[in-house]
Design goal:
The complex is a heterodimer of chains A (about 230) and B (about 240). Chain A has about 230 residues and is mainly α. Chain A is built from 8 helices and no strands. Chain A has one domain: Orthogonal Bundle (MetI-like fold), CATH 1.10.3720.10. The N and C termini of chain A lie far apart (about 60 Å). Chain B has a 6-stranded mixed beta sheet, sandwiched between helices. In chain B, strands 2-1-4-5 form a 4-stranded antiparallel beta sheet, with helices on one face. The chains are: A mainly alpha (about 230), B alpha/beta (about 240).
C-alpha cells in the first residue's frame, strides 16, 4: 500500500468544518471554563476561611464527581440522560457543557493550590489597608495565584482540547468526527488519521504558544526581578 | 482626648496569655516606641490596634472608633490606622504606583486621577518618585519598605503602626527607612513602633514603652528610661541589646 494524500482532497470541506468546530469548542470552553473555575475557587476558598456552607459543599461535590468519573460518561450523561429527564439538548450544547464543566472542575482545583499558597503577609497587608475579602481576592490574590499555577493551567486546557475528540461519539462534527467520516467513505484510514493527528499536534502547540504569549503580558512582574 | 487609648487589654492564643492587661494612651503627634524581648507581646499589641488580631477583653478607643472586635469592617478601620510590616508585603504583581493607589481607589473609592496625585505625593515623601513604574521585585529591601510606608500613608491614617520595619533589612539599608520615619515624626505623624533599633527609639521617640511578659513593665521618656532604668528586667534588657 502506498500513501496517497490526494484521496483526501475531495474532503477538504469536512476537515475544515471539523477543525473549526474543534477550535471554537476549545476557545469557548477555555474562556467560560476558566471564569467558572475562578468563581468555584473563590467560593471554596471562602469556606476555608469562614467554614463550609451549602454552596461550597455542593461545589466541592461537583469538583470531586467530575474529577473521578470518565469524561465520556459525563458527556453521555448530559446527552442521553437529560432528554430522558425531559430536558432536550442538542449534541453541540451537550458537548460544550460537558467540556466546560470538566475544565472548570480541574482548573478550579489547580487554582486552589495557587490561591492557598498566598502568604499570610499578603493577606494581612491587604486587610490592614481595609480591603474586603472579595477585594483582596480580586486585587491581591488572583493574579499571583494564576501566575504560580499557569503551566498546569495551560496543560489542562490542552488536555481538554485533545479530549474534545470524544464529542465525535455523540455526532458533533469535530475534527475526529470528520476523520471517521472520511475514512468510512474512502477507506484511506492511514492518510486521514495521519493528517488529523498532525492537525491536533499543531493545535496543541499553537494553543500553548498563545497561552505563553498571554502569560508573558499578564505576568510581566515576574521578569527582570531579582527577589 | 487621646488619639489612642487602650484599656485593660487581654489577648490569649489558646492557653498562652500573650497580653495580660495593657493600658496605654497615645496623644496625637506622639511617637511611641515599644521595646522588649521577643515573646513579650509587643507585636500582638500592635496587631490588636488594627484588629489583625482580635482582643479577648478590654477596650481600644481609636480617635472616634471604639474597637470591640465585632461590628467593624476593615474599610472603616483602615481610615484611621495604617500599618507597615517587617516583611514589606508589597503586592508583587503591581507596580509601585499601583501598590500605593490600590487602597484609595478600591476602599475609599477615590477617583483614579486624585488617587494618582496622592500616590505621587506620598511617594515623593519617601523618596521613591523615580521608581513609580518598577515592580517590587526590582527594588531593594529598603526601597520596598519605603514604598510600603507610602502605601500606608496614602490612606491618610491618623496613626501609623510599624512592626519591626527594619528587622528584615540589610544593615546598610536600615538608615534610609529610619530617616523616612524620622521625617514623618517631625511632620507630626503619630507613630507607634515596635522596634529593635534602640538608638532610634532613644533619639526619635517621645516615649518608650518596655514590655515584659505580656505587661507594660516600665515606660517613660527615652533619655531617663535608657539611662536610669527602674526595674532590673529593663536594665538587663538594655544591657543585652546595646
Amino acid at each position: 500500500m502506498t500513501l496517497d494524500f490526494s484521496t483526501l482532497l475531495p474532503y477538504t470541506d469536512e476537515i475544515v468544518t471539523g477543525l473549526v468546530t474543534t477550535v471554537w469548542l476549545t476557545v469557548v470552553t477555555t474562556l467560560i471554563g476558566l471564569s467558572l473555575a475562578v468563581v468555584v475557587a473563590y467560593v471554596r476558598d471562602g469556606a476555608r476561611e469562614n467554614g463550609a456552607n451549602i454552596v461550597s459543599r455542593l461545589l466541592g461535590g461537583y469538583v470531586e464527581v467530575i474529577r473521578n468519573t470518565p469524561f465520556i460518561v459525563q458527556l453521555f450523561f448530559l446527552f442521553f440522560g437529560l432528554p430522558a429527564l425531559g430536558v432536550p439538548i442538542s449534541a453541540t450544547v451537550a458537548a460544550l457543557i460537558a467540556m466546560i464543566l470538566n475544565l472548570a472542575a480541574y482548573t478550579a482545583e489547580i487554582l486552589r493550590a495557587g490561591i492557598e499558597s498566598t502568604t499570610r503577609g499578603q493577606h494581612e497587608a491587604a486587610r490592614a489597608l481595609g480591603l474586603s475579602r472579595l477585594q483582596r481576592f480580586r486585587h491581591v490574590v488572583l493574579v499571583p495565584a494564576f501566575s504560580r499555577v499557569y503551566p498546569s493551567l495551560i496543560s489542562q486546557c490542552i488536555i481538554v482540547m485533545l479530549g474534545s475528540a470524544v464529542v465525535s461519539q455523540i455526532s458533533v462534527f469535530d475534527l475526529t468526527y470528520a476523520a471517521n467520516f472520511i475514512q468510512s467513505r474512502n477507506f484511506r484510514g492511514f492518510e486521514v488519521y495521519l493528517v488529523v493527528t498532525a492537525i491536533y499536534l499543531l493545535l496543541a502547540i499553537g494553543l500553548r504558544l498563545l497561552f505563553e504569549a498571554v502569560g508573558r503580558r499578564l505576568f510581566a512582574f515576574r521578569q527582570g526581578g531579582s527577589a | 482626648m487621646a488619639l489612642v487609648s487602650v484599656n485593660d487589654l487581654h489577648k490569649s492564643f489558646g492557653e498562652l496569655e500573650v497580653l495580660k492587661g495593657i493600658d496605654l494612651t497615645v496623644e496625637a503627634g506622639e511617637v511611641v516606641s515599644i521595646i522588649g524581648r521577643s515573646g513579650s507581646g509587643k507585636s500582638t499589641l500592635l496587631r490588636c490596634l488594627n484588629q489583625l488580631e482580635r482582643h479577648d477583653w478590654g477596650t481600644i478607643q481609636l480617635a472616634d472608633q471604639r474597637l470591640d472586635g465585632a461590628s467593624m469592617t476593615p474599610g472603616e478601620l483602615s481610615q484611621n490606622v495604617g500599618m507597615v510590616f517587617q516583611s514589606f508585603n508589597l503586592f508583587p504583581h503591581k507596580t509601585v504606583l499601583d501598590n500605593v493607589m490600590l487602597a484609595p481607589v478600591v476602599v475609599k473609592q477615590t477617583p483614579k486621577s486624585e488617587a494618582r496625585r496622592i500616590a505621587e505625593e506620598v511617594l515623593a515623601k519617601v523618596g521613591m518618585s523615580e521608581k513609580v513604574d518598577a515592580y517590587p521585585a526590582q527594588l531593594s529591601g529598603g526601597q520596598q519598605q519605603r514604598v510600603a510606608i507610602a502605601r500606608a500613608l496614602a490612606m491618610n491614617p491618623k496613626v501609623l503602626l510599624c512592626d519591626e520595619v527594619t528587622s528584615a533589612l540589610d544593615p546598610e539599608l536600615v538608615g534610609e527607612v529610619l530617616r523616612v520615619l524620622e521625617n514623618l515624626a517631625k511632620e507630626g505623624m503619630t507613630l507607634i513602633l515596635v522596634t529593635h533599633e534602640m538608638r532610634f527609639a532613644r533619639d526619635v521617640s517621645d516615649r518608650v514603652v518596655f514590655m515584659h511578659q505580656g505587661r507594660i513593665h516600665e515606660s517613660g521618656d527615652p533619655q531617663t528610661l535608657f539611662s536610669q532604668p527602674e526595674t532590673p528586667e529593663l536594665a538587663q534588657f538594655i544591657a543585652s541589646v546595646i
